[in-house]
């Protein structure tokens, strides 16, 4: 009860701050503040007169104040927007709950779209990567184990929702352990879809808002799969979600093209020899179900992976994290490749990348703090949950992965969904060549030919528009593009939301 009250007061305080900051908004902003204050009075008076009615009042207050509001996140920089975190149950019978963190847009959240961000793996956390290394307002800070403000946060342009999915990733869990034996693409899309409807019940003002899904890496599979799920169910008006577009960075798209691109990129960027490349070209058929039964092929792909183990495959020209020898060992096992299993390497979670290759460790330290977990409503303040940035068991035991989502692209284009794909051109894991091979195989008509796009008077990369799809590169960025090019990424995101081409003049 007391907690709800405190939440309410803080909520009011935030409104007041917001009103202070932009004078022009003062009157409309003050009105809801005053009215919520009055409503609070109406609810509070009976509390003091009739103690027996406390439970009822508490329930009424909870519907008035969202109990997922985050009010005391340790080390949090002061901000003028609200953010919420917590679990939502997606399946009552097996007890599955997904963890989310939602940041309102920094200004005018009522007028801005809603964007769901997903990271990949499978098994990696959208909170650990997307929210706190790439595009969230609070990013992990190298000194100590705190967080700092990110001036290029994507919540400047949209209301940003980060989801840890599926169960077993980050804080998300299932009370039925056998659920972990059936994780795959479809299971993930199903639970993410259930999550969205649960989330809209908690945040009803977003129910009909313009909605987009964005993400990177293995989310290249998750995103079109979830979009298709939504489109199919939108036929039922009561389930309608206002999906407008999808945005994907260095996305896994089509296993055969992704492999071809990875091999050609390693050769053209001097990671493997002409001889190795030639053997792979002659002996590997990446379209076959039986690629690795050819020894020449698997030996030479092994050679490629051996070379990549020496550097950061996700960012060819930056250093690896040398702080912690234990994590370097882990890195070797993550790049391990089993001849029998094409799946294993195909779905490898990303390791480290970015200017600071040790970011994963800072995130791990931060999210394993009891005070942080309490503030995010994942712990009662006594029992620590074990949080890791990627769950290797999930990755290793993934049951089903769609070999290609290109047929879904075609379906989404037909449904009028905006598709933008971007690629950091120094990533060796899902390199720009993989993405170009995949898009090229769609055979779409080119509507605006290849040209540079600019940010702050410099070439950020190149882009090309097709009927139904826009493709762009980020010059000198690794796998997780916004870590490398925060300001360019925000400008690009803004263009995507508007549906305008990225700026093509200096
Ligand atoms: C809950 O999950 C189980 C599998 O663990 C599934 O059989 C069941 O259909 C799900 N229930 C709903 C309502 O989706
Ligand atoms: C999982 O089990 C715990 C302990 O019984 C319970 O507190 C929690 O609510 C359950 N989670 C879900 C999503 O049902
Ligand atoms: C990782 O996933 C497995 C199931 O695949 C689960 O049992 C385990 O609790 C998860 N680990 C963490 C740290 O969440
Ligand atoms: C590669 O495998 C696919 C699928 O099995 C097959 O259709 C194709 O003919 C093969 N290509 C070559 C060059 O053998
Ligand atoms: C947390 O999870 C990791 C990875 O699954 C595991 O190695 C570690 O032992 C776990 N720690 C605790 C305290 O459970």
Concise synopsis of the structure shown:
The protein is α/β, with parallel strands linked by helices and 506 residues long.
Estimate percent helicity.
40-55%
Count the helices. How many? 18
**What is the average per-residue confidence, as pLDDT, rounded to a whole number?**
84
Distinct ligands, ions and cofactors found in the model: 2-acetamido-2-deoxy-beta-D-glucopyranose
How would you describe the overall organization of this protein?
The chain is α/β, with parallel strands linked by helices. The chain has four domains: 2-64; 83-222 and 230-249, Alpha/Beta hydrolase fold, catalytic domain (Rossmann fold, 3-Layer(aba) Sandwich), CATH 3.40.50; 255-281 and 290-360, no CATH class; 406-498, Rossmann fold, CATH 3.40.50.11320. Helices cover 41% and strands 16% of the residues. The strands form two sheets. Strands 1, 2, 3, 6, 7, 8, 9, 10, 11, 12 and 13 form an eleven-stranded mixed β-sheet that branches. It has a two-stranded antiparallel ribbon with strand order 4-5. 43% of the residues are buried. Residues 1-33, 41-56, 58-62 and 324-355 have low confidence and may be disordered. The structure holds 2-acetamido-2-deoxy-beta-D-glucopyranose (NAG) (5 copies). The site of one 2-acetamido-2-deoxy-beta-D-glucopyranose has 2 residues, from loops. It comes from Linum tenue. Its EC number is 3.4.16.-. It is found in: Secreted.
